[in-house]
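Task 17 of the worksheet. Students: predict the tertiary structure of the chain below and write it out as structure tokens. Keep your answer in the requested format; marks are given for formatting as well as content.
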Amino acid sequence: MTAFRYRAMEANGASIEGVVEAEDRKAALRLLSERGLFPSTLDSSGAKQVVTGSSAARASVAGETARGKRIKRKDVSALTRQLSALLGAGIPIPLALESLAEEEENPTLREVVANIAEAVRKGDSLSGAMDGHSRLFGKLYVSMIRVGEEAGVLPKVMNDLADLLEHEDEVRSEIFAAVAYPTFVLVFGILTVTVLLTVVLPRLFSMLQEMMSALPLPTLILLNVSGFLHEHWLVMIVSVGSISFGLWRYLNTAKGAENWDAIKLRLPLMGAVFHSAALGRFARTLGTLVRSGVSLLPALKIVENTIGNRVLARQIAQVAEETRGGNSLAGPLRKLGVFPRTVVQMISVGEESGKLDEMLLKVAEIEERQMRARMKTLISLLAPLMIMGVGAVVGFMVIAILLPIFKMSQALH
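Model answer:
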């Protein structure tokens, strides 16, 4: 057993100091928590340890953060699930956060969780502490935590939030897996053709020009393309880079982003996929918020900022304005034509039966199922088309190379 000297606050706000014996620091924190004490410092063997980590530890974490360890969406989802489990087991919020901070492998996320734990220890709410890291957690996350705190059902809300984040991660992984093969085929084909045109063919064609006075038309076409790329490759790289940078800058403006979102919805085949994905996210997020106790109008405002498409977000904002005068959601949706008629009817039935959250989640399942089916159909068509396109280009290059060789062999005979 080790003796730990502590300074803590009682439930009435009074400060208290004392000594507690425990096997390790975690056990000491647990004992103090069971006594209704909220420690601010914990001393062991004469070394002062602040509950959220010593200054040296925080400096170490800051150094690792400076080295650029990025926090992924799956890291936040895993943290939410773990925090939900700890709170569901009755562990106090500060102690749960400190345990997660100690076990977290990502140094950047470890620092964030430690900062949140320190803010909660000082009397801030969990939602208020997380709101200080709004770029990481977002408005949806913080709003659901705040509702859970106010209603006294934080563990349940944390569980709903973890389900939502994990579902979004699952859908995103399915999409990435679906487009991985076509993307690989396209990139590999472009690289192969580029290397052939800029490195291999110029040397081969110089030999053919010396050996033959007149080259076949396909060979001449390929020779001119190869020569242009070989001589102006630096200009081509700079031009492509400049155009890409300019396009990136434009898409990061409000007008550019909205125009791009509008174009995505009008694309043949892919437009329906983007539309179903956005509406599925709308229905699942709104259903989760309503089930967690968020009233309809604030929930619509939150969803407006998280739907992922500015054109549809503007329509959701109009729905929110129409809803402001009453509690109906189906009426504005039917009027603005955001959802298909059958889906609006389902939402109307959900409102009348008092099960709007359940009906919204069913709508989300319908839209997501349609999105997956359309994505599979699109990929099943896109992959063969890409292979045929790359094969046609490579086949033309092979013909252009072999034609002069055949002519030379015929001349020799």
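Marker's comment: Confidence is low (pLDDT under 50) at residues 45-68. The two ends are 97 Å apart (CA to CA).
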